[in-house]
Design goal:
The chain has one domain (2-223). The chain is mainly α and 227 residues long. The chain has six helices and no strands. α1 packs antiparallel against α2 (25-99), α1 packs parallel to α5 and α2 (25-99) runs parallel beside α6. The radius of gyration is 35 Å and the shape is rod-shaped.
Length: 227
């Protein structure tokens, strides 16, 4: 993993400095500063990698829950359609019995309506459907009609969309932690290059650039959400 490589590089750079011979005071000060930067990079890289892994896991969990909710929504919608189909079949039979003035048979089919469909059926009759041209085609078209399974399917579908969206946000957060890990690797690169320079100014410039980049990356790391 990138964070493991960063920590290993930081360790090797520090180890090389410890193996070097006696240094002048200024060089010792520069090396101490570099060691401090390397230590911070190692710790920050480990933390960034840990958070990236945690957010990846949370994103996978949310995606799994979203998929489950989507399956349950489809199942509820299918069962709701089956219930509506049964009510519609009974309604067609009722229409035929009503047309043939078979009162008892018509009442039999009304009793077989589901509760939500029966409420809509009563409301539909009040629209004078056999004479009024503006009357709805059937109880299922009435605003009073409620199918609990359809409503459950809508709720689950909304829940699935919310979970998927949150999972996508978590994925973006994980990517930002990975980005910071790459920036920490750039800090290591600048410090490593600086240690190769013999000129004091060049080494100070490289170290200063590394320090500025490290500070910027640490600020972005602190601002990111944590788990």
């Amino acid at each position: 993993m990138p964070e493991d490589q960063n920590i290993e590089i930081a360790h090797k750079l520090t180890e090389r400095e410890e193996q070097a011979g006696p240094k002048r005071p200024f060089e010792e000060a520069i090396e101490i500063a570099e060691v401090v930067l390397l230590a911070i990079v190692a710790i920050a890289t480990a933390w960034s990698g840990y958070q990236a892994a945690k957010w990846d896991g949370h994103q996978a969990l949310l995606y799994g829950e979203a998929t489950k909710a989507r399956f349950e929504s489809d199942s509820a919608s299918t069962r709701g359609g089956q219930v509506l189909l049964g009510d519609a079949s009974n309604f067609e039979a009722w229409l035929q019995a009503h047309e043939e003035n078979q009162t008892r048979l018509a009442e039999f089919f009304v009793r077989r309506f589901t509760p939500g469909y029966k409420v809509a059926f009563v409301a539909w009759l009040k629209t004078d459907p056999f004479t009024a041209k503006t009357a709805p085609a059937g109880p299922a078209y009435m605003p009073e009609y409620h199918n609990p399974l359809f409503e459950k399917a809508d709720q689950l579908n909304t829940q699935a969309s919310a979970l998927f969206e949150q999972g996508t946000l978590d994925r973006e957060t994980a990517d930002k932690y990975v980005r910071d890990t790459v920036l920490f690797a750039s800090v290591l690169f600048l410090i490593g290059i600086g240690q190769r320079f013999k000129l004091r100014g060049a080494r100070v410039t490289a170290g200063s650039a590394a320090a500025i980049l490290l500070l910027y990356t640490l600020v972005t790391l602190v601002e990111l959400p944590k788990i």
